[in-house]
UniProtKB/TrEMBL annotation:
SUPFAM superfamilies for the chain: alpha/beta-Hydrolases (SSF53474)
Bias kind Polar residues: ranges: 415-430
E.C. number: 3.1.1.-
Keyword Transmembrane helix attached: yes
Entry GO CC: plant-type cell wall
The organism of origin for this protein: Clitoria ternatea (Butterfly pea)
The protein, known as: Pectin acetylesterase
Pfam families: PAE
UniProtKB keywords: Cell wall, Cell wall biogenesis/degradation, Hydrolase, Membrane, Secreted, Transmembrane, Transmembrane helix
Compartment list: Secreted, Cell wall
Enzyme class: hydrolase
Function: Hydrolyzes acetyl esters in homogalacturonan regions of pectin. In type I primary cell wall, galacturonic acid residues of pectin can be acetylated at the O-2 and O-3 positions. Decreasing the degree of acetylation of pectin gels in vitro alters their physical properties.
Chief subcellular location: secreted
PANTHER family: NOTUM-RELATED (PTHR21562), PECTIN ACETYLESTERASE 8 (PTHR21562:SF93)
Lineage: Eukaryota, Viridiplantae, Streptophyta, Embryophyta, Tracheophyta
Length: 471
């Protein structure tokens, strides 16, 4: 609006022809349309470096911050980016040269959508909150803290310090006055919101309404198709490599080995802060990396099935139904308390809160006649509790089942888990059959925003032309 005011002032100062006024108005409208896109610039936490709170390569941590307005000025949603984990020096070194290990490689601005959208029609309950996306570059769901830095690899395992430094920065920018707050995240970020749920609560004012939201972060401890405990071994390696044990909830590590405390099923009953789980019972990442990882399928029999659930054989679907049963069993520890909620659909999907298609649109996934956006908001504002588990696949026609391209799967024994998982902002190679394709959705969103911009421009034009008609 400030930019529009400048445009109007410039036009008023002009002593030129009507054509000149039209040209200037056109320029103003064009800039307005560009500014309508909800791209949010990156913020580097430079002072974190002196505290040793750095990415794998030693670069400063970063986040994207879109300031709240109106009634949302003292409300905050802090979303943590996903991206899998690295479990040893080799896999962590492979991250140093891209955004999951270095802030030098991160995009300088990213689009906010879903629960991070600033548009009321797409995010009615949280659109005017302070919305933050914390970038992921440590490979440990923000739990690591190893003081020593190997002089050869120069790897820094400092995820827990990054969490603390980012929180300190946000508190100084107004979060210390929060009346409402949500810590959320997708995938490895969803696990972050579980592991740091009570810690986040402790940083905020006692009287504030503070809750946690985990999207696709309920990873379960299940055997793969070969019978091996692959994911349990992997998480144990992550914890050892990053020195995570001391930063995991003590309520869990006092009872179990630290590697097990990476699984929400072993610690969620001890979390005292209200928490909500959004997850697919047939989570596409868990099917690809826990049930049927490349190491358990060297011949690639699961390759086509993992790319598209419609390609799965009856036997593979039976195994997936068995995985769903295990998932629901692991979920029972959440309980039926109104302080805890869940939206468990039967889609072949991964991460649903930061993508507009699945968060809130006319054809978004529905459980009990409720979208994810409404379920989360009703639970957060205590309008009603929400504990809904979908019927088995393929019963839900509202699902957005993901279809992956061949290069997104790695048969022949290569383990996708060590390469990380795409999150809502990076899953550019997947598609949603209910939509013609991702590009068309982006185009539709741009058109909607362009129309909004044009309508505002027309209002300005009418204001400018009124003196002409009155004379």
């Amino acid at each position: 609006m400030m930019f529009i005011a400048f445009c109007l002032l410039d036009l008023c100062r002009m002593e030129s022809t009507r054509i000149g006024q039209w040209l200037n108005l056109l320029v103003c409208a064009m800039v307005l349309l560009i500014s309508e896109a909800s791209y949010v610039p990156i913020t580097f936490v430079q002072n974190a470096v002196t505290k040793g709170a750095v990415c794998l390569d030693g670069s400063p941590p970063a986040y994207h911050f879109d300031k709240g307005f109106g009634s949302g000025i003292n409300s905050w949603v802090v979303a943590f980016e996903g991206g899998g984990w690295c479990n040893n020096v080799t896999t962590c070194l492979s991250r140093k040269t891209h955004r999951l290990g270095s802030s030098k490689q991160m995009a300088k601005q990213i689009a906010f959508s879903g629960i991070l959208s600033n548009m009321r029609q797409f995010n009615p309950d949280f659109y005017n909150w302070n919305r933050v996306k914390v970038r992921y570059c440590d490979g440990s769901s923000f739990t690591g803290d190893v003081e020593a830095v190997n002089p050869t690899t120069k790897l820094h395992f400092r995820g827990a310090r990054i969490f603390a430094a980012v929180m300190e920065d946000l508190l100084a920018k107004g979060m210390k006055n929060a009346k409402n707050a949500i810590i959320s995240g997708c995938s490895a970020g969803g696990l972050t919101s579980v592991l740091h749920c009570d810690r986040f609560r402790s940083l905020l004012p006692r009287g504030a309404r503070v809750k946690c939201l985990s999207d696709a972060g309920y990873f379960i401890n299940a055997r793969d198709v070969s019978g091996a405990q692959h994911i349990e071994q992997f998480f144990t390696q992550v914890v050892v490599t990053h020195g995570s044990a001391k930063n995991l909830p003590q309520s869990c590590t006092s009872r179990l080995s630290p590697g097990l405390c990476f699984f929400p099923q072993y610690l969620v009953s001890q979390i005292t802060t209200p928490i909500f789980f959004v997850n697919a019972a047939y989570d596409s990442w868990q099917i690809k990396n826990i049930l049927a990882p490349g190491v358990a399928d060297p011949q690639g029999h699961w390759h086509s099935c993992k790319l598209d659930i419609n390609n799965c054989s009856p036997n593979q679907l039976d195994l997936m139904q068995g995985f769903r049963t295990e998932f629901l069993r692991a979920l029972t520890v959440v309980g039926n308390s109104s302080s805890k909620g869940m939206f468990i659909d039967s889609c072949y999907a991964h991460c649903q809160t930061e993508m507009q298609e699945t968060w809130l649109r006319t054809d978004s996934p529905i459980l009990a006649k409720t979208t994810i956006a409404r379920a989360v908001a009703d639970w957060f504002y205590e309008r009603r509790p929400f504990h809904q588990i979908d019927c088995p696949y393929p019963c839900n026609p509202t699902c957005h089942n993901r279809v992956f391209e061949p290069q997104d799967d790695h048969p022949g024994g290569k383990n996708v888990t060590t390469k990380g998982t795409p999150d809502a902002s990076s899953a550019t190679k997947t598609s949603f059959p209910k939509l013609s394709n991702k590009a068309q959705w982006i185009e539709l969103l741009c058109i909607e925003r362009a129309i909004s911009g044009l309508l505002l421009s027309l209002v300005i034009l009418v204001i400018l032309l009124m003196p002409m008609f009155s004379s």
